[in-house]
Automatic annotation (TrEMBL):
It comes from Pseudolysinimonas kribbensis. It comes from the Bacteria. This is Alpha-D-phosphohexomutase alpha/beta/alpha domain-containing protein. Residues 13-108 form the Alpha-D-phosphohexomutase alpha/beta/alpha domain. Gene3D superfamilies: Alpha-D-Glucose-1,6-Bisphosphate, subunit A, domain 3. Keywords: Phosphoprotein.
Length: 139
């Protein structure tokens, strides 16, 4: 059987881990984070800031009842407005438990999960980091 241990600094450890996985810094990038008044309210803005990005935060005042209430990945209008108002490079909208996100580009257009996966795959391939790297179409 396992054991349960509480870590008062668990969120800090997680943020340090996340930032440590990056092979680039985010200086010069302005990101708007919509944390959906949920689990990402503290960690996401801090991780992006530690990585060097300028961060504007919305939807990060959880009170135990307002999770996803008019904000987050199911309500992108506030994020779109904030990205355009602040002339940000992108916006990231988490869902309440922070296991998914959508994005808004600098022009206010939605970048859905499939498109994000494609962008990441192309980037990994270009850097030679795509697992089981292959070319398409195969001959």
């Amino acid at each position: 059987m396992g054991r349960i241990r509480r870590f008062s600094d668990a969120e800090d450890r997680y943020i340090v881990h996340l930032v440590g996985t990056l092979d680039v810094r985010l200086e010069g990038l302005h990101v708007v984070i919509d944390a959906a008044h949920g689990a990402a309210s503290g960690a996401s803005p801090e991780a992006f800031a530690l990585a060097g990005a300028k961060v504007t935060v919305i939807g990060a005042d959880p009170d135990g009842l307002n999770i996803n209430d008019g904000v987050g990945s199911t309500h992108l209008d506030h994020l779109r407005s904030a990205v355009l108002e602040h002339h940000a490079d992108l916006g990231i909208a988490h869902d309440g438990d922070a296991d998914r996100c959508l994005a808004i580009d600098a022009n206010g257009e939605i970048v859905d999960g499939d498109r994000m996966m494609a962008i990441l795959a192309v980037s990994l391939k270009e850097r030679g980091l795509l697992a089981r790297d292959s070319s398409w179409p195969r001959s």
